[in-house]
Design goal:
- By secondary structure, the protein is an all-alpha fold.
- It has a single domain, classed as Glycerol uptake facilitator protein, CATH 1.20.1080.10.
- The longest helix has 23 residues.
- The N and C termini lie far apart (83 Å).
- The relative contact order is 0.20.
């Protein structure tokens, strides 16, 4: 094993589908939650100063629930950069590209992210109510003459 990039857990049983599924669902949920958190037009989201905390809590929840099989890369850049660095610069018994596992943290998060964005934009967002237009307030001379 290597500390620079993710890999299957020691309990990995050889079923690639489980690994792809964990990465797909993890990234799907991450993108879906980020869209829901930052959509302040249709949602009553947290203030801008709480967005990083909320996204961090989403990543923590995803990691605790789905991180076991693969180490929850949930972002292809989190795994690909260190894997390329290891493959190029580290010598010895380098397993960065030894088997086809390296495709799991690259392809599954890309597909999961697209699916999460699609799900929010086309299935969740249309069901949320549009914000109501504020009623026009009387201005200037209209306010002064109301009590007369």
């Amino acid at each position: 094993k290597n500390v620079f990039y993710t890999g299957p857990s020691k309990y990995y049983d050889g079923a690639w589908f489980n690994l792809y599924f964990a990465e797909f669902v993890g990234t799907f949920m991450l993108v879906l939650l980020i869209y829901a958190i930052v959509d302040n037009i249709r949602n009553i989201g947290p203030g801008a100063n709480l967005w990083p905390f909320m996204v961090g809590m989403a990543v923590l929840a995803i990691g605790l629930s789905l991180g076991g099989p693969t180490g929850y890369a949930i972002n292809p850049a989190r795994d690909l950069g260190p894997r390329l660095f290891s493959g190029i610069f580290l010598s010895g018994d380098n397993i960065a590209f030894k088997d086809s596992y390296f495709l799991v943290p690259i392809i599954a998060p890309l597909l999961g992210g697209v699916a999460g964005a699609f799900f929010y934009d086309f299935l969740v967002k249309p069901m949320l109510p549009l914000p109501k237009e504020p009623e026009p307030q009387p201005r200037g001379a209209d306010v002064a003459h109301e009590g007369d």
